Amino acid sequence: MPVTNSETSIANLALAEISAHEITNLADGTEPARWCRRFYAQSRDEMLRTHPWNFAMRRAVLAELSTAPVSEWARQYALPADFISLYQLNGTRVWSSAGVQGGGNELCQIEAGALLTNAATASVRYVFQQTDATKYDPLFVTALSLLLASKIAKPITGNDGTPWVQRYEQIALPRAMKYDAREDRPHVISPIDSSELIRRRYASDIRS
Fold it and tell me: How far apart (Å, rounded) are the C-alpha atoms in residues 36 and 14?
């Protein structure tokens, strides 16, 4: 059976990484629980910001604000309360191929808790603050536990957190992002693009 994740189980994975005692929950009053509680939510949201995770995606039609932005944009829309990062605006991705927002995005801008754009409507897909750990992908859980371990290692054990953050950045996070991206909506590839034979025949027909 699949493992049912929880904040406590993820915290215990992090504690096991640094060879610290297990906790019963994040509020059990022990020193490991206090440090896990301090860094858990921040680590979770940090990870959610790194990639458009499928398990943390929502759709919404944003409400336009009555005050026009003082900028080059014509309109501004209120972002949802659980907003983490924007993935699509009106069906067009705003993430770059590297999975990072920005880099010449001409559709919109995020500023002071609002979405600034020239679009007359704002139908969005966005990463939300997914707090239900039972929805997390197993690879996300592994990466999150390593990130949390890197933050709690020093205060709990006195050891530097560098080994865990290196495993997180170099192995666990890229792997989780790679497999999550495979489950996104596939790009449609035309027969001409996918077949060398068809491309040759197509080019021959054009020349004739």
Answer: 9
